[in-house]
Amino acid sequence: MSENNEDTCAEMYVSGRVQGVYFRGFTQKVATGLGLVGYAQNLPDGRVRVIAQGKRSLILELLENLRIGPELSNVEGIEVMWVDTSDELAEFFIKR
Hints:
single chain; 2 helices; about 100 residues
């Protein structure tokens, strides 16, 4: 089995114009469509934190979508860390 088919979890920090431009909703829509679980959360410093769990290949596909973002966004960078999976995630949601 290849590494891309293994379940994993990514913690991503997206910077740029990513708040107030439907970025979390966009992230939720794409991630849910890919069958990923996790959440998107605005941070006080203007970034969006994304936790995505599922097949590595699908997380990489989400990452490519996040680099583009919704129409009004301007993604300047994404920091990605691969972390341990969690049994607590059952869906992809917007964290307040």
